Amino acid sequence: TRCAQHARPHVTVCICVPRRCSLGHISDLHGSDATSLPGFENLTMGYNKYLRPYFGGEPVQIAMSLDIASISSISESDMDYTATIYLRQRWTDPRLVFHGNKSFTLDARLVELLWVPDTYIVESKRSFLHDVTVGNRLIRLFSNGTILYALRITTTVACNMDLSKYPMDTQTCRLQLESWGYDENDVIFTWLRGNDSVHGIEKLRLSQYTVERYYTLVSKSQQETGSYPQLILQFELRRNVLYFILETYVPSTLLVMLSWVSFWITLDSVPARTCIGVTTVLSMTTLMIGSRSSLSKTNCFIKAIDVYLGICFSFIFGALVEYAVAHYSSSQKYAAKAPQEGPANELTKEMEEVNITNILNSSNTGYERKISFTSIEISSDNVNCSDLTMKTHEKIKCVLRNKMHRIIGYFTIQNPSNVDHYSKLLFPLFFMLVNVFYWAYYLYF
Q1: CA dist 126 to 64, 149, 276, Å?
Q2: Could you give the CA distance from residue 175 to residue 156 in angstroms, rounded to a whole number?
Q3: Which Gene3D superfamilies has this protein been placed in (predicted)?
Q4: What is the DSSP string of 168-236?
Q5: pLDDT > 60? residue 67
Q6: Residue 4, pLDDT score
Q7: Counting Cβ atoms within 10 Å, is residue 267 exposed (0-12), middle (13-18) or buried (19+)?
Q8: Each residue's pLDDT tens digit, 70-97
């Protein structure tokens, strides 16, 4: 403002000289060292970066697109994934309209002079903006007032995983973009081109997963302070099971088959069969501990691999118990034969002497009665409990004794060598059936 003294006393005339304004630079109209860009004169006159476009009127339409550069790690123990993304946001600010049909890429530091959306990543644990060699941000301004704002972000996002079918599982993870402070009355989020707004995810090569499919959603987040616009990228990751088959399933299956070798070894080879059984049990235990060490923080889950290892451990332990049963039955059989060859003959001789004495000193009736009592004492398996001379409590004891001998007879192995014979067929057959049900359930249900 320039002021001059008027001819009349006490009158001063002031003339206002306009000044040109640019993005962050104000220059004199007639200054020779003007630093404003061509076409940006008066661009920021009256601009307030603290007020959104169309303030007090319609909401701002913000269109977004994503490029997934990489997904570096997917952690089952922490239940999250780390991704590097290129986030691009477009909106129109009528205060930044200028003449011409060109677009200008501005210095990223000028973003401090403009209004930008307050977009944030929901369920993000850690995030940072890359700043080598400068902050990885882009500002591009179009003549119709459209602004393109791009960022390169690395973020670690939580992903709730269901590990009940691990390692034959398929996980569904999300990347959610939401407005922090502006509700749906102030901003509206949209995908720029629907599912085509996301690029790069179909080209990812992950160590354990394959991207099955992905799709975009537009939603709202209802909070206590209002309803906020939200964009969702949802993608499904299928785990590659081949690695786990070679590392866990094949070794555990071979250990089960190794335990069956003991069925072809005779019962007399105690060290050989015991060594095979104990070695396979210890090896299986080591394999189970190793498979769970990688998921130490998710031990509360009963996973598919735990079920299979438990099945294999049961078959291996069953083979060891089978030998114990067969060997015990064999030893009992030999112990039962030995007394019959020694003491049994002596008992028979004593009975004969007693019978001869009774014949000489007793009547025929007494002789028959003593013979019947002797047969009752010797034959403990089939005792006649209907004798009239027996008392009531003796009859009850006799009946209970016969029942116990009959039940024990059902579980008595008459030929211990048959145990190995049947085990050679039953163990592989049951193991194959269990595998059929296991793989059918976890692959198709």
Answers
A1: 22, 22, 51
A2: 10
A3: Neurotransmitter-gated ion-channel ligand-binding domain, Neurotransmitter-gated ion-channel transmembrane domain
A4: S-EEEEEEEEEESS--TTTEEEEESSGGGGEESGGG---SSEEEEEEEEEEEEEEETTEEEEEEEEEEE
A5: yes
A6: 44
A7: middle
A8: 998 899 888 999 999 999 999 999 988 8
Helix, strand, coil abundance in the chain, percent, nearest 5: 40, 25, 30
pLDDT of residue 107: 86
Check residue 245 and report its DSSP letter. I
The band of 191, judged by pLDDT with boundaries at 50, 70 and 90, is very high
With beta carbons less than 8 A apart as the criterion, state whether 94 and 55 touch: no
Give CA angle at 28 (24, 32), nearest 5°: 110
Task: Give the single-character DSSP code of 160.
Answer: -
Per-residue pLDDT, 404:
78
pTM given for the model: 0.72
Burial category of 76 from C-beta neighbours within 10 Å (exposed 0-12, middle 13-18, buried 19 and up): buried
Given a contact cutoff of 8 angstroms between Cβ atoms, the answer to whether 36 and 28 are in contact is: no
Kindly report, residue by residue over 269-296, the tens digit of the pLDDT: 889 999 999 999 999 999 999 888 877 6
- Both tokens assigned to 390: 């027996």
**Alpha-carbon distance 352 to 358, whole Å?**
10
Task: Please give the radius of gyration of the chain, using alpha carbons only, rounded to the nearest integer.
Answer: 45
Looking at this protein, which amino acid is placed at residue 433? L
The predicted model gives 22-39 an average pLDDT of: 39
Q: Which two tokens stand for residue 346?
A: 């002596």
- Cβ atoms of 65 and 192 within 8 Å: the answer is yes
Q: Quickly count: other Cβ atoms within 10 Å of residue 421's Cβ.
A: 11
70-79, 304-313, 334-343, 353-362: the lowest-pLDDT one: 353-362
Is the peptide bond prior to 167 cis by the omega test (within 30 degrees of 0)?
yes
Assigned token pair, 30: 């007639």
Instruction: Give SS3 for 90.
Output: strand
Phi, psi values for residue 103, rounded to 5° = -120, 150
Cβ atoms within 10 Å of 324's Cβ, excluding its own? 12
Percent of the chain with pLDDT over 90: 51
Which amino acid belongs to residue 196? D
Contact 156, 78 (CB under 8 A): no
Cβ(328)–Cβ(269) below 8 Å: no
Q: What's the whole-number average pLDDT of the chain?
A: 80
Rounded CA separation 213/295 (Å):
26
- As to burial, measured by CB atoms within 10 angstroms (0-12 exposed, 13-18 middle, 19+ buried), residue 377 is exposed
The whole-angstrom separation of Cα 326 and Cα 267 is 7
Residue 139 near residue 106, CB atoms below 8 Å:
yes
Distance of CA 253 to the CA centre of its chain: 23
